[in-house]
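COURSE: Structural Biology Practicum
ASSIGNMENT: Worksheet 4, Part C
STUDENT ID: 0417
INSTRUCTIONS: Below are two proteins. For each, the amino acid sequence is given first, followed by its structure token string. Answer the questions at the end about the second protein only.

PROTEIN I
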Amino acid sequence: MRDEMGKSLREEKERRRQYRRVEMKATEAANSMEITLSKKASKELSALDRSTRARIVAGIYKLPSGDVKKLQGYPAAFRLRIGGFRILFEMSASEIRVSDILPRGSAYK
């Protein structure tokens, strides 16, 4: 029993560590840009439930494609819409920096 609890705790810690990583690399050959999550975005991502987190991570990996719009008033800021969430990011020639992952209602305030 104790070994099973220890194993499940280790698995849970590894799962959390996986979503707390600050940098992610896209695995698709078409997207050779480096994707970086801010500390705040990483924390917001880890707080979501598993299915929502999987949808958001899949959407981030597909950047810059998807439902992306440029934010008015900011030179390099964009948003990605995934369901009721908005992923706010900045894009340069070789890097995509995700700054926030927020519910739709609080994303633009």
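PROTEIN II
(use this one for the questions)
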Amino acid sequence: MAFQKLEADPKLREKAVLKFWEEKRVFERSVRERDGRPRFVFYEGPPTANGRPHFAHLLARVYKDLFPRYKTMRGYHVPRKAGWDCHGLPVELEVEKELGLSTKAEIERLGVEKFVRACRNSVDRYIREWEKMIVRLGFWIDLAHPYVTYTDDYIESLWWELKELHKKGLLYKGHKILPYCPRCGTPLSSHEVALGYRRVSDPSVFVRLPLSHDPAVSLLVWTTTPWTLPANVAVAVAEEAQYVEVLFRGERLILAKPRLSAVLGEEALVLREFPGRELLGKTYQPLYPLAGSGAYRVVAGEFVSMEEGTGVVHIAPAFGEEDYDLGRRENLPLLQPVDRAGRFTGEFPLCAGLFVKDADPKRSWRKCWPWSLFPASFPRPSTVRSLRSMGRGGGYGFGGGGDRGPVGR
């Protein structure tokens, strides 16, 4: 057989290889001929079919192709099935842009069924684009029998799994703290929140909480999300850290010693110093007495930072994962005065019916330091144009954040 010189053009050479693989069914044979051998299981984390693939998608698929091929050459049976994630806000966002929609009310006027059909059509269109890329890249995966998350078979399999979990007593009713989009009325996945961030400014306040047994002395609390204050049910301190009671402009205040200089400067006079554990169990007068018994007391929190704030952390279990975990441990009430549209409920009459961010200037600041209302800047999902016109995929996390995260407290 005469030597055949390789085609000089890489593109033509690659197309010739792809054609050979397709005509000889090389991928299918590589799987079939190793049936019965030890299995190497590969799960394709499905891409969301809400747009055309880009370079980062190509790079990920190189790695996803590399290891199954290697294991195949080592003699393993490596079946791999393509999958398409067709649910979630990324798909809906794409369709909203196509249809010129921007609110949930506009979707409802269009009709939910029409919107769902438009989403399915969009997904099908992008799946075809992805399949072209996968074939051209030479990524070996079963495209003929994919799992597609909008099909009845797939959805029914999930319901079957839930039924089996329920039969085994593994399901329970409870709460989970998640980022939340009040415009959509839905929680957000970490992927949806990570669609992008921008920096925004929010009000930051210092709050006095007078001790019940000695109202002349107040705990000094700092928060960057004052809208969560009506849901306050406790404050947390670091039990091993040192705290001080100081006299500042005629008032006696308690805060962490490492934060004294940064918060009050050199003007404060230290009256006494003591460990945080001495504060545990003490009760205080709440800003808004909305909770019942067991609330408004000092508890220990291992997350309390000496790097920011006052070392006295406002706890609202409905609005922070660490807060919620602490609330369960300390048997604190779960106070949730915000509805699914992000408006204060009748539980908080002062701002009932107002969106939480619109209520900021209307809230009573009678126990806040007038000089302490300053903007705090931190990342928010970039799809939040403003909270009043919040886009899908953006949310203020009515179940996330605190002094310890991007949402602040």
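ANSWER KEY EXCERPT:
Q1: Residues 364-409 have pLDDT under 50 and may be disordered.
Q2: The two ends are 76 Å apart (CA to CA).
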